[in-house]
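job 3f2a | input accepted
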Amino acid sequence: MDIQVAENLKKLREEHSLTQEAVAESLGVTAIVIYMWEAGRLPIEYKTLVRIAEFYDVPVETILGTKTEEPAKPDTKSEKITFYCKVCGGDLVYDFDAGTSKCANCGNKWAIAELYPKYKRVIATISKANKILNSKPVLASADEAKLLFDQAISECNRYNDSVSCELVKICTEGQEKAEQLEIYCRGKHFFDNKAYKSALKELEKVRGFRDADDMIKRCKRRN
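job 3f2a | predicted structure (223 res):
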């Protein structure tokens, strides 16, 4: 193997603070194979280099050590986040809210952070924000969730790839849910204080959210 490729493989692994064992598990090979690749003692197929590039979320040219023109921005409408199941090679389906990926073929699951190490903190932030949204319905929860989604978006904006686009989309949807929670909380406050006209005005904006529909019916009966 080209010694430059071997050095780049080791450099990428160390930049992501991963052990040879962790990389081996994610790629579906043994740790000794990773060692041999990084030592330049074992040939590596191009399609395997592509998989490794996807794992580290870098162009394959980065591993090959070749210069390329500045990459064009990804077409998020057609580009699909792909990484293959290390058990059967099937396509993975992502649940960014839960922070997990599932093989569409065999059903095995992995943490997305294992596949995309640099997004570990972002995914944890999104998961925390969603847990807050599903907790007790209070204005403070809505505000905290918004802040967390903002933080996640800011970090995603440092990158220019399909994964960051997916995560920003999820954060934007989360912010919309936080807005709904905020409106719901105002409506519930009015409802609990028997200000049914004001409650109805707010709750009408979030029909279908939690028990808003039930409170709407009760408000109308009292008006």
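job 3f2a | Residues 67-80 have pLDDT under 50 and may be disordered.
job 3f2a | closed
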